[in-house]
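Write out structure tokens for DC-UbP/UBTD2 N-terminal domain-containing protein.
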Amino acid sequence: MGCSGSSQVKGNGTVKKIRKPKPWKHPQPITKSQLIQLRDEFWDTAPHYGGSKEIWDALRAAAEADLALAQAIVDSAGVIIQNPDLTVCFDERGAKYELPKYVLSEPANLIKHS
């Protein structure tokens, strides 16, 4: 307690590391522009479901960053990682933050335009 990052430490003394979500598929094939629209809608409405705007902002920055930077962002924001793919996190006050996979990675059935 009182130690920076102590809430991130698992019982065996190791820090939970962020990893990419497992491959997933959207219910229907989706274009990159549709995926971006879904992400924008999620991030615009997420703070209205509770929790701190600062934590939501940190989670968005982490979701849009590479893994090393994402780890630094959540560590410095005091985010407690429940699932290493960032789908479930908590802040230091116990507020829960759930992120859909579509804000964390692209689906396997993304339509790529040639």
